[in-house]
Amino acid sequence: MSDSSDYCKCDVCKGYEICTITQSTGPLSGIYTCFDEGHKFCKNCFPEFHKRITSADNIRRIVKEEKWAYQYYHDVDDIGSNIDDDPDEEVIGKGEEILQEYYAEVPSKECPMCQKKIVRDDEILEYLLKKLKTTRAKVIKEMRVHE
């Protein structure tokens, strides 16, 4: 992977999502970025989150609550139609750009890493070292003695 692709790297699994549709994070790329802490996580590490936000019901909610999303959706849609009357596939298809804009960055209250729904191994190690009042070097030294 080239350095220019680093933004597509998941902090949890260290896997990459190919960003062919967009050159940013969000639902279309499969990698999300936390607005507050900069965490990056992929749809594979937190599939419930991805499924919930890309659902037709969530797109309908955004279109109803956000004026810009309503205007965008209805500029694309036939005049006089109602989003509630559209089949789910049509709503999702027309709503992809809305989702991408709305979820380009995720607030910490939605971030699974901030909410500790996903905890990286390095965070667990840091926590245990503090809890046990030791250092990585001391643990390695002890491991060598007991081999």
Written account of the structure:
It contains six helices and two strands. The protein is mainly alpha-helical. Helix content is 43%, strand content 4%. The protein folds into two domains: 3-115, no CATH class; 119-147, no CATH class. It has a two-stranded antiparallel ribbon. Helix 2 (56-65) crosses helix 4 (88-102). The model is unreliable at 1-6 (pLDDT under 50).
Give me the number of helical elements: 6
**Average pLDDT, to the nearest integer?**
78
Low-confidence stretches: 1-6
Strand residue percentage = under 5%
Shape: elongated
Number of domains: 2
Structural class: mainly alpha
- Characterize the main sheet: 2 strands, antiparallel
Helix share, percent:
40-55%
Radius of gyration: 20 Å
Order of helices and strands: EEHHHHHH
Distance between the termini: 37 Å
Within the largest sheet, what's the order of strands? 1-2
Find the count of extended strands (DSSP E, 2+ residues).
Answer: 2
Which terms would index this structure?
147 residues, mainly alpha, two-stranded antiparallel sheet, 2 strands, disordered N terminus
Structure summarized in a few sentences:
Helices cover 43% and strands 4% of the residues.
